[in-house]
Amino acid sequence: MPKWVWWLIIGLMLLGVGIWFVKRRQAKGQTLAPKAAEPFTIPKGQRIETTIATLEQLLEETEDKIIHEALQTRLMQLKAEREKLRKEKGA
Predict the structure, then answer these.
(1) Contact present, 48 and 89 (Cβ < 8 Å)
(2) 38-51 per-position pLDDT tens digit
């Protein structure tokens, strides 16, 4: 048999062993990587406040009219969302 066939067979065997190993670890509940943390650990209200502060700072620094209008629009949306969130908490 040619050498490349042997290398192909060995490669497929190694791939099979690797897949078997991963499946066995997953079946036991163990994974190689730690479980991901909750992506939104920061409360929504705090995220909105931080974003508003960032956008206000960007508004001060930008000179481009189009970017300024886009930032202003998003800032108004976030302020409306902040008010809505405050009303929901108060109710």
Answers:
(1) no
(2) 666 778 888 899 99
